[in-house]
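User: Structure please.
Assistant: Input sequence and predicted structure:
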Amino acid sequence: MYDAHSKGVSYVNAFLILIGLWIVGFIAGGVLSIPIWMMMTGKGVMSMPEELLKPENVNAVRVIQVVSTGVTFFLPAWFTALIINRRPAKLLGFTMRFNYRQLLLALGIMFGAAIVAASLATLNELIPIPKNAADYFKKLEENYSAQVEVITNIRTFGDYAISIVMIALLPALFEETFFRGGMQNLLTRFSHKPWMAILLTSLIFSVIHLSYYGFLARVCLGVVLGLIYYYSRSLWLSIAAHFFNNAIAVTQMYVLIRQGRPVKEAMNETYPVWWGIIGAIGLYALFILFKKRSAKAIKKYTAPEDRALEEKWIA
């Protein structure tokens, strides 16, 4: 079902366009990192893998991270929306049809989701896998931890502010635009199965992060972000929730570093499984409130003709 501003491209074809542009963006992001690295460090490409983990190159690493993430995620979603719709921002969900109560509930939901996710990380570690696979996944986690430590490198409040923008805000904006505004949105529109779209998008969201021990946790966070977007129809709320989750992690790192403790303590935080059960009950209650508030907001802020079109594919 097209909306009033559609250019006539089916949502199935739009999804294929999105995936095609994502592949192009992934390649382009890698290619662009090379001149950025050379200009900012004056060092060659061959030494890049080793030099990326050195603190003195932190500014280059941060810029590469932002540019590659933007090119890989944000631009494919934006150009896909531009190709298929005359109002791309509206199609993606960049609408202000929400109120402060929804925002507060979304942040509360994300806080509860972080507890559930940490419990799922504990469960993830309990799942038996072959030793060679476990060694491989642990190596990946160690490499990821080393990269995060370089990118954060939070020594002063100025470093903390930069990290909040580059590690918390921009990734939230770029990833939510692609995964929720783009992938989940288009899957929902052509399948008419929102739960399938949310779950599939969340699985892909987790797989792309290449973390076995964080797989279940990221699936959980993806589902929560997907539901926030689905119930509210506003991408800003899922961006705010994603940013809130990232900002908590960055703040934990900053506090630990100020205390002279290792950053890995914040990155490897896990909770007992029973905490996750309590958190899930709290999430269920918060989502009931959020769904009701969002339904009222949509009715208040959405034009009747737009609402009638949405109800044909979103229900």
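Residues 112 and 281 are 9 Å apart (CA to CA).
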